Amino acid sequence: MMQMQSRFQSDRRLTARMTVTLFLLGLLYLAFVAALIVLLKSWVLVVVIAAAFLGAQYWFSDRIALYAMRGRIVEREEYPQLHGVVDRLSAVADMPNPLVAVSDLEMPNAFATGRNADHAVLCVTTGLLRRLEPDELEGVLAHELSHVAHKDVAVITVASFLGVIAGLIVRFAFYSQFFGVRGRKDQNTVVIFMAVLAVSAAVYALSFLLIRALSRYRELAADRAAALLTGRPSALASALTKVTGDIARIPTKDLRSAQAFNAFYFTPALGTTPGLERLFSTHPSLEQRLEQLGRISAELGEAATPGKAR
């Protein structure tokens, strides 16, 4: 997998992880589809449905994400400062300018979407814009733009959606078997249903862990690349501290709907938890991210202290 040429620091470990994750997920889902074909005896239906949904997610992921997060493309006249920061970062990184979008959500956050740099969208919430200083906003936007440069936006989009495809196939398989027999709920039907359910559970569990592991590493890679591009890791650390603290004060019930998109956010809608549950988190802990930014700050000889809001 080749990364696009930009001035963001390349990350060979991220590239290797993405390659291995996609390879393992590919094998996993090929086995899953093969199992469904054997169980359901309808290879055309299974393959067509899987291919259609995967193609739709790849080509329309930006529209799907914006719609789900109530984001809209904004023109330069409406948000001149935001466009200015994005234009400046794109020029420094030697990348095409992405589309700029704003979501009218109080939750302070940001995400990038799109299948490649020529079809990328950077979206921020109004809650984020109200809370951050200009240098902090630049750090967050550089973080999101680095996801586009590293191509992990497309990888995580496709990888995450494979689980959705599996779920839809299984649901369709269940209803077609359950209603298709028209009263012949014989033992063979029950065996088929249980086999499909077991295969689905195994595929989902393995893919879930693979995607979470990749997601946590890609966030650290984006923090590192953004800090080195801007030369101000302390500003990114300040933004992280501020956003994480403000999200923690938002009622949990107001964050539930956004939690499904945690893998795409700058910080998770619901924070990481200690212990074994960290294996299921989409992001590394705040402490891990600040520690890394602190090391980069020391390497760059930055005077500001990472993690303290300005």
From TrEMBL:
Main subcellular localisation: membrane
Cofactor(s) this protein cannot do without: Zn(2+)
UniProt xrefs under Gene3D superfamilies: Metalloproteases ('zincins'), catalytic domain
Cofactor note: Binds 1 zinc ion per subunit.
Binding site for Zn(2+): H143, H147, E219
CDD domains, sorted: M48B_HtpX_like
HAMAP family to which the protein is assigned, alphabetical: Pept_M48_protease_HtpX
Name the record gives this protein: Protease HtpX homolog
Organism: Streptomyces avermitilis (strain ATCC 31267 / DSM 46492 / JCM 5070 / NBRC 14893 / NCIMB 12804 / NRRL 8165 / MA-4680)
